Amino acid sequence: MSEQWLWSSRVRPVVDGSGSLSKNVVDRASFSGRFTDSLFRNSRIQLPTSLALVLIMVLISPGREAQAQVTAKQILQAYSPRQKDVDYEVPTAADLEKCQVTVERLGKVSGYVVLGAQGQLLRRFMDTNGDNKVDQWRYYNHGIEVYRDIDSNFNEKPDQFRYVNLGGSRWGIDQNEDGKVDSWKSISAAEVSREAIKAMTTGDFGLLETLLINPADLRTLGVNAALQKKMLDNVSQPEAKVRQIFSKSRDFTPKSVWVRFDALMPGSIPADDGKAETDLQVYENAMCIVDNGGGKTALIQLGELVRVGDAWKLTQIPEPIGSDSITVAGGVLMQPLLASAESAAPSVSPEMQALLDKLQKLDASSATLAATPEAMSKFNSARIELLLQIVNATTSEDDKEQWMQQLADGYAAAIQTGQGGDSLDRLKDMETKLKKDSAASPLVPYVTYRRMLAQYSVEMNTANEAKRADIQKAWLESLEGFITTYPNSEDASEAMLQLAITEEFNGRIKEAVAWYSKLAAAQPQSIAGKRAAGAVTRIQLNGQPLKLSGTLLEGGSFNVSQLKGKAVLVVYWATWCQPCAADLPQIRALYEQYRAQGFEIVGVCLDVDTSPQDVNKFRVENKMRWPQIYERGGLESPAAVQLGVITLPTMILTDRAGRVVNRGATVQDLKTTLPQILK
Question: For 542-677, which CATH superfamily applies?
Answer without folding.
Answer: Glutaredoxin (3.40.30.10)
